[in-house]
Amino acid sequence: MVQDPFERVAIFGAGLLMTAFFLAIVVGAFGLGIRVPTCVTDIPPFDQPAVVEVAPGQYVVNVVAQMWLFNPREIRIPAGSLVTFNLTSKDVQHGFKILNTNVNMMAVPGVVNRAQARFDQPGEYLIVCHEYCGLGHHAMSARIIVEPRAAGDQGPDPARAVASALACWAR
Amino acid sequence: MGAMAISEGEKRLLRWHLYIAYIAIAVGILFGLLQVLSRARLLPPMPWYDYYQGLTFHGVLNALVWTTFNIVALLALAVRASLSRPLYSLSLGWTGFGLMTIGVAAAGYAILTRQANVLYTFYPPLMAHPAFYLGATLLIVGSWVAGANVILTYVAWRRENPGQRTPLMTFGSIVVFVLWYIATLGVAIEVLFLLLPWSLGLVKQTNPMLARTLFWYFGHPLVYFWLLPAYVAWYTMVPRLAGGKLYSDPMARLAFLMLLLFSTPIGVHHQYTDPAIGQEWKLVHAFGTFIVTIPSLLTAFNLMASLEYAGRQRGGRGLIDWIFRLPWGEPAFAGATLSMIAFAFGGISGIVNASYNVNLVVHNTSWVPGHLHLTVGTAVTLTFMAMATWMVPYLTGRALWSRKVALANMYVWFVGVMIFAVGMMRGGLEGEPRRTNLGFSPYLLPEWMPFLVMAAIGGTLMFIAGVLFLLNMAMTIWFSRQPAQVEVPISDALHTAADAPLAFERWRVWLAVAAVLIVISYTPVLTQVLQTSPFSAYGFLPSNPAPIR
Q1: Higher-confidence residue: B428 or A151?
Q2: What fold characterizes domain A50-147?
Q3: Which residues of chain A are within 8 Å of residue B276 when distances are taken between CB atoms?
């Protein structure tokens, strides 16, 4: 069917281009660890808002979205923290996007969603609801305040961080 | 052509589809204008104006009503003209039209009385009045009847002409309707089994995650249901309007078939940020999405080659001279070709959306409506406007009222959408959420303002272009006194259908392959959703945080 050389170049060129793009996102996902939310089952229901430091520099934040606020509304953590967000909704569907990070999730009632981010830069991070959730949708937001580390506090021990990174490779 | 001239009855049926589409878009673009102004803080609070009611109207009327009615009219005419055979049944045609129109009226009533401020994706557990879901059902069932009329026309022609190759115009149109039957299965199950009984109070609780998944099973082929009729026009009409030929007919068929197979089993790329679906299946759907870009890349090649051929037929020399030889002063050609240019940007931004983890940057930001106003909002919409400049005269027998107004319509819309889309997309990259009345938002960031103003300027231009379109059509229908002298433009091909494999017309085989791909890609997804998501959500009205028990 394809005798025309131009057509052949177009078909194979299109295939090669898309293969290259697909390889790029696979490298992003598995090489750089930029993952999308996944199916989470083996966990208790995170319907209680909470900010818990589970290990030095590591936090678990349970966020409950509801018409038209996030609970908690303000999350304070020190710079350099690695934060796991568990997200669910008490009522309708909501969105959860932390500006200037890769955290972007849907909050669906009855199910838990999860994402992780490291906050190295001190400052304020705006969280917006980006799924229409009724009358007050445009007022629904929250804030993460990343506080600079106190003098003398060097954050997670670098030797320990290296050891834990090596442990990942050893597995 | 000509042996079997189109009857007055057929013309009446098809032009009434266009009239409903025009009423829909008239209301739809009015709310579009109010939205861009409101988001940029250029609109004072007005007691009668509810942003989310307007947004529901805008989405339903423009994306569902304007498109569906235009598609039925354009494709029925395309099949009728390319087969040179009367439509299967006028009464079937009017039945479809009637069901669709009653559906639009029912949903319109629910939206107008503010009992359905749920946007056109109607995600539960936000609950609308039952008339909204009933209206959606009737619109879909009506489109099934209208599609059956077109497919039965083809089946009858096939029986009368065994062994003959299907004309490309009909081939593409049949692909559109077959795809539509596959796609609407998802939304029909969602509305009939989940949402309608729930909004009637027969069941109290529903499963929002399952509803989302069924919606997006439908939602992605839906965008191809919008886009492929524009492809039919671009492949089979525009080369003729340009004074040339389609470069390759077999390659166009290959593109249509690939779109038939791959546009459904990839719907999860709208759900990358959802819970309950594993990232491995999200990645599989991302891969499928990349396959479905290939037929669009082939379309870009084929159409550009056709335009270059036309430009050279018109005396073009050298590398770029042929571009200027094309009939840019003819509204039908100019509008359709500007749509293609917009679609190049729409397609590229679509690949960004489809790119799995890259999507985390843009998901549900104003980037997405920026993208979809380039695709359905221009590639499709401006093509329908361009085709209307010969279709309305053809169907009414009255010459186009003003060629200059039509040209202004096409170019102003194109300039408008380019400004609008850049504003929306840049704002989205800065984190501006979509579907949000930002002008009234306490957290509005100052760095969003320039992009919101840009979108408002572009959106206003699009509105002006839309008004020019409606004015031109109204004047043509009511006041034009000159008789129309137009035919349906049907392009010949440089590389003809004779080179296309006969297997391309084995519809049963392709349907079976499509079904297998859907089963493979959706069985694990639905299993995960059903295992993790309960039927536990009570309904909520958009105005009240307390559930309806």
Answers
A1: B428
A2: Immunoglobulin-like (2.60.40)
A3: 39-40, 108, 111
